[in-house]
Amino acid sequence: MGDSSREDMNNTLRVLVATDCHLGYMEKDEIRRHDSFESFEEICSIAEKKQVDFVLLGGDLFHENKPSRSTLVRALEILRRYCLNDRPVKFQVVSDQTLNFPNRFGHVNYEDPHFNVGLPLFTIHGNHDDPAGVDNLSAVDILSACNLANYFGKMDLGGSGVGQITVYPILIRKGLTSVALYGLGNIRDERLNRMFQTPHAVQWMRPEAQEGCEISDWFNILVLHQNRIKTNPKNAINEHFLPRFLDFVVWGHEHECLVDPQEVPGMGFHITQPGSSVATSLIDGESKPKHVLLLEIKGNQYRPTKIPLHSVRPFEYAEVALKDIPDVDQNDQSSILEHLDKVVRKLIEKSDKIAAGKSEARLPLVRLKVDYSGFTTINPQRFGQKYVGKVANPQDILIFSKASRTKSRGEGKIDESEKFRPEELNQQNIEALVAESNLKMEILPVNDLDIALHNFVNKDDKLAFHACVQHNLEETRSKIAGDSGSADFEEKDLIVKVEELLEASASCTSASVLLKDLLELFLFFFFFKLRTPKSELSFV
Asked: Which one is catalytic: 128, 225, 255, 291?
């Protein structure tokens, strides 16, 4: 290797980018249980062969918020095999690492003297493995505590209203190349959307100018995990919300592989969307070939190279409209079955031809979306029985839908693929219910109750409401301790307040208002007990 080539290598930061590995997906399915792990192991293998400086993941490393022991063990085994070795790490982290990694150790994992980390892995959390519970922990925190991953982008939504966050970059240097790596773990899209539109709610910290390194010398990368394309713009993040000083954005959460960087008009940065490494929704976007991205950065220039994943299970997708098929009679179900069988067999044959040159043949995923407008449906499970042993998903090969009617008043047409993703349904939150009922919450903040309900329902967090109350108790105690005037609260003020609440509750007819007042009455007694010494309490 020549001197110039060696110098280029010393000044070039090589990063392997992937998102949405969803480890543990379909782990109870005998055929597909290993798919997510095989794809993730291939990603780590590519990183090892390409001798990258580190692996960068864009969230949803795990499919479940509380992954099973089997999933955790498999993930730890893969990371231990590929990340722990004696290969030297050739870059430095020069930022305040206690701000980048807010855990007990507070530094990048390869600097720990008790571990030989040769392949560092940096990751944010997604919406599947986001932190929850009293201690606000994620499954990724387990990997961080084991020193196998560098978990960044975990935000504490402080402040009032929608909250306030400050994004600190991880400052990385390799030779003459300086990279500022920003991470923003998943926040509910509706809330983050409002934060971006609220002045000073999202603050971006820039590297300070130093001798020999100006602010403009830094190559700025952002990793985030949010909805990018959505029918309802309030439930997605507009690319124009992002700051203009960015050079490159890694967008997680969207599973369609659009790995080639695309320039955002008028913003000055490019976006890559690597997509998922395992198909979790059998829709058209997931059927496209899966890739990861090798990103080589030198100074302010970068070179992207997409690398195909070969361990991904084959997936064939097609759509048919029965009304457009001349040989199908709507009164003859056997003709419908015959035509659908013919289409499915062609998809299987197509997959077999593609896999002919591969050493190990795998059962393909097959999805046929059927527009049955004017026709009757058939039983998908019964239809799939004849394909057991031929496809990986015999129970749901067919999915039936009707053509969307043209909506009036300028309403947009909703794509059918959006209708079959339960996690994307627009759900009403507590904040909206309170606003509709014209209520006023005086003790527990609406936002905190909204988050607690979301964690309780969607993440099976049984302590969500307990954590919400505890957090507000701590804030109240701190406020009382710092406010000397609050000690003048007298018992007669409590009696007056209770009488007002009881009179209001007795005259109301709305169950929601009554429930709210009773809850407020209980919490009022509770908070009064906390802020009043026991010796001053008297009960009649």
From this structure: 128
